[in-house]
TrEMBL record:
<dbReference type="GO" id="GO:0046872">
    <property type="term" value="F:metal ion binding"/>
</dbReference>
<keyword id="KW-0456">Lyase</keyword>
<dbReference type="InterPro" id="IPR050963">
    <property type="entry name" value="Sirohydro_Cobaltochel/CbiX"/>
</dbReference>
<dbReference type="GO" id="GO:0009236">
    <property type="term" value="P:cobalamin biosynthetic process"/>
</dbReference>
<protein>
    <submittedName>
        <fullName>Cobalamin (Vitamin B12) biosynthesis CbiX protein</fullName>
    </submittedName>
</protein>
<dbReference type="GO" id="GO:0016829">
    <property type="term" value="F:lyase activity"/>
</dbReference>
<dbReference type="InterPro" id="IPR002762">
    <property type="entry name" value="CbiX-like"/>
</dbReference>
<dbReference type="Pfam" id="PF01903">
    <property type="entry name" value="CbiX"/>
</dbReference>
<feature type="compositionally biased region" description="Gly residues">
    <location>
        <begin position="300"/>
        <end position="310"/>
    </location>
</feature>
<keyword id="KW-0170">Cobalt</keyword>
<keyword id="KW-0169">Cobalamin biosynthesis</keyword>
<feature type="region of interest" description="Disordered">
    <location>
        <begin position="281"/>
        <end position="310"/>
    </location>
</feature>
<keyword id="KW-0479">Metal-binding</keyword>
């Protein structure tokens, strides 16, 4: 038997913080690829610490629903899961290349495949692009349009910026959008000045966050000038300094995130059958897209008030 654990942050303050986790888990659960699919959180129940001990499966795939390698993925989750043989060096990563490490949870006699975070997987690049398609309602969006991939950025974890820059460069290499830039909240170049970095009249802004919350639904819209008060909402697109800003909201709320979770598990050796194809097909049907690979979509996540924790 094999089980999947989706490990997310959650929030004590905002009950919506866990919504994307449960939604993606349901999508994976519906494929029947795993005998058990469980959600686990740092700030909510069920907690990281006991989740593996509640499973019947003897093989467990743990996928962190986090954007970057850092404190939570390298220290908190392995510690709380009691993966005693774990050490960050086992990932042998440069900050964006963590894949998986196989460990034994000896107290319960289970094999645990601890995967890298979803945010650094190559499939996340497709989700960012899909997010741009969702908010513009244009499956061919790109020509004449600029794309800003926005991250938190922090001096405490240089990998936070690496993930944003990694996907920005991958999208830029596709030569689909006229301009592609990485912007940040807490370091240069800052998202506050988004219009200064683009010549394109239309700019799609996609925050590389797992859930909509304080940063994506309050800070960023106000900082970009979409609204003076997030509680009043904002237009999509919004006119700012002679540009149209298409603000997409957190990338992690996109339905295709379930595909990234499955890709992580597959890289670690999970037997998925046709689960990947099923998830992609279901997302195409749900959004009425034209049948191209990796098409998906959920709520654009813009024009609302505060949402879940980032």
């Amino acid at each position: 038997m094999q089980a999947l654990v989706i490990a997310a942050h959650g929030s004590h303050l905002n009950p919506d913080a866990s919504d994307p986790t449960y939604a993606h888990a349901d999508r994976v659960r519906e494929t029947g690829a795993f005998d058990e699919v469980r959600e686990a959180f740092w700030k909510e129940e069920p907690h990281f610490r006991e989740v593996i001990r509640t499973l019947e499966s003897d093989e467990v795939f743990v996928v962190p629903l986090f954007i970057s390698e850092g404190y939570f993925t390298e220290q908190v989750i392995p510690r709380e899961l009691r993966l005693e043989e774990w050490h960050p060096e086992k990932w042998d990563s440069d900050g964006t290349s963590a894949s998986q490490v196989t460990l034994e949870a000896t107290d319960v006699d289970k094999t645990v495949h601890y995967c890298g975070p979803v945010g650094t997987h190559d499939a996340m690049t497709d989700v960012i692009v899909q997010r741009a398609e969702t908010v513009t309602e244009d499956p061919d969006v790109g020509e004449g349009v600029g794309l800003a991939v926005v991250g938190h950025g922090t001096e405490r974890n240089e990998n936070s910026a690496k993930a944003v820059e990694y996907h920005t460069e991958r999208i830029r290499e596709r030569d689909r959008f006229d301009e592609v830039e990485a912007l940040f909240m807490d370091e240069e170049p800052e998202v506050d000045d988004v219009t200064e970095y683009f010549e394109s009249e239309d700019i799609v802004v996609v925050p590389l966050f797992i859930a909509d919350g304080y940063h994506t639904q309050e800070d960023i819209p106000e900082d970009m000038g979409l609204t003076e008060d997030y509680r009043l909402g904002w237009d999509v697109p919004a006119e700012v300094d002679g540009h149209r800003i298409w603000y997409a909201g957190a990338v992690g709320t996109e339905g295709l995130m379930a595909d990234v979770i499955l890709e992580r598990a597959a890289d670690a050796g999970a037997d998925l059958g046709d689960a990947l194809e099923t998830v992609r097909a279901n997302e195409r049907v749900a959004t009425g897209t034209d049948g191209r690979e990796r098409e998906s979509g959920t709520d654009a996540g813009a024009g609302t008030g505060a949402g879940a924790g980032d």
